[in-house]
Amino acid sequence: MKKIRFIHVAALAGTLTGPALAADLPMKSEAPYVDPRFSWTGCYVGGHVGGGMGSKAMTDPVQLVQDSLIAPGTTTGVTTVTTSPTGAVIGGEIGCDYQFSSNVVMGIEGTASGTTMRGSAMVGLPAGVPGDVALVQANNDFLASVTGRIGYAFDNILIYGRGGFAVAGDKYDVSGGTFNGGGPFHFQGVDNRYGWIAGGGVDWAFARHWSANVEYDYYGFGNGNILMTDQFSGATGVVNVKQSVQVVKVGLNFHIWGSGW
């Protein structure tokens, strides 16, 4: 009988002391939450808008008009006329980047932009009657490029530079109301000029799939000859144009992130 009572008492003591012992055991701690590391790895597509300024030095519009409309050898000396086209730039881009563990980011990007860049200058025609002048105009219709891109990422801020191949689509006019007592003239020529681009900017990823950037680019296109044709007489001649373009633009891109944010 005593043995049975002892068993009951022991069972009751175990029931009462069990929760207390369990309360004294250390609780399993939860792992602290760590934000996933931001990565620029992935591809993107977007658009941009900005402004551009060019320098287009034409040699020799005076000889073009005088030698074409009078006779070869009429012009003495060489004249270079420089125009500075300015205007808006609007277009799009597509590219892909890869971010290394060192936070270095490398990628490739293609861009295409239409522009409203226009510039003009007046030049005298000494072989004509006094007061004869020509209006020299230079228009840039589009810019395009394929470049490599390299930068350094500070989390969701990317500072980068880019450089590579570029092309410009241009149109040139040399025109006037009269020359040497004759009728009007209007020489026209078009040019697709190939060259290089170098630039850089800052890209800011401000949302899950979106980033905004500010960028400066310099385009170098060197010298090139352009065939000009008078729309009235059919006379032709060649001028040489040395040109460069500078662009400042802001862009907005939609990203397809690789490892995500």
The total tally of domains equals: 1
- The count of β-strands is 9
Radius of gyration: 35 Å
The CATH class, by name, is: Mainly Beta
How many strands, which pairing sense, and closed or not: the largest β-sheet?
A: 8 strands, antiparallel, barrel
Put the structure in a nutshell.
The protein is mainly beta and 261 residues long.
Q: How is this fold's topology laid out?
A:
Elements: H1 2-24, E1 42-59, H2 61-69, E2 80-83, E3 86-99, E4 104-124, E5 133-154, E6 157-176, E7 185-205, E8 210-230, E9 236-257
Antiparallel strand pairs: 1-2, 1-3, 1-9, 3-4, 4-5, 5-6, 6-7, 7-8, 8-9
What this model shows, in words?
Strands 1-3-4-5-6-7-8-9 form an 8-stranded antiparallel β-barrel. It has 2 helices and 9 strands. By secondary structure, the chain is mainly beta. It has a single domain (50-257), classed as Beta Barrel (Porin), CATH 2.40.160. The chain is elongated.
Q: Main traits of this protein?
A:
261 residues; mainly beta; Porin; 8-stranded antiparallel barrel; 2 helices; 12% helix; elongated; disordered N terminus
